[in-house]
Amino acid sequence: MGTEDDLLIPPLNFAMVDKGVYRSGYPNKKNLPFLHKLRLRSVVYLCPEPYPEANKEFMEKNGITIFHFGIEGNKEPFVDIPEDVIRDALKVLLDVKNHPILIHCNKGKHRTGCLVGCLRKVQNWSLTSIFDEYRRFAGAKVRMLDQQFMELFDISSFKQTGRTWHYGGNGEHDYLIMGKTISLGTTCYLWTSLGT
């Protein structure tokens, strides 16, 4: 029988968003062996608080880049999620050089849900599907302001560019990148913002 150290325990609200893209709540020490198995390259951290030392040490030891976008949750009447920060986080998320990548906030519900919802808009999901996914993670704590934010989020500045990425390999695996299946060894496109 294995020891407690052998257990792989995912963080709260952990799920796969797309190939190489994951979401969760705040990982704690007992979740780090699980995260190690994902071979992450990057973490998008959406809380304003500094990252805990234990997590930072784990990330540094494993060569994982932390992209810190400190935002408050969408709460009435005075706190709104800043669209420019979500736009910057989305640029990081869309860059396949950062994959595998984990997005997280405290509980993996609201801020993470908004960023994933904006990704889904770029992927041309219907609003009904975006809201269904958001509600699945938010549970009884659905925020109408979050749904309004996702609905009004402007994706017109995101487009496919002519920049290409080539993947080596023998074609045995496919990557799902921005809603398109790309075989290894073929050309795929990186989504970038026109603003940069």
Automatic annotation (TrEMBL):
Residues 13-165 form the Tyrosine-protein phosphatase domain. Its EC number is 3.6.1.52. It catalyses: 6-diphospho-1D-myo-inositol pentakisphosphate + H2O = 1D-myo-inositol hexakisphosphate + phosphate + H(+); 5-diphospho-1D-myo-inositol 1,2,3,4,6-pentakisphosphate + H2O = 1D-myo-inositol hexakisphosphate + phosphate + H(+); 1,5-bis(diphospho)-1D-myo-inositol 2,3,4,6-tetrakisphosphate + H2O = 1-diphospho-1D-myo-inositol 2,3,4,5,6-pentakisphosphate + phosphate + 2 H(+); 3,5-bis(diphospho)-1D-myo-inositol 1,2,4,6-tetrakisphosphate + H2O = 3-diphospho-1D-myo-inositol 1,2,4,5,6-pentakisphosphate + phosphate + 2 H(+). It is an enzyme of class 3 (hydrolase). Keywords: Hydrolase. Pfam families: Y_phosphatase2 (PF03162). Residues 76-149 form the Tyrosine specific protein phosphatases domain. SUPFAM superfamilies: (Phosphotyrosine protein) phosphatases II (SSF52799). InterPro entries: PFA-DSPs (IPR020428), Prot-tyrosine_phosphatase-like (IPR029021), Siw14-like (IPR004861), Tyr_Pase_AS (IPR016130), Tyr_Pase_dom (IPR000387), TYR_PHOSPHATASE_DUAL_dom (IPR020422). It comes from the Eukaryota. Coiled coil: none annotated. Belongs to the protein-tyrosine phosphatase family. Atypical dual-specificity phosphatase Siw14-like subfamily. This is diphosphoinositol-polyphosphate diphosphatase.
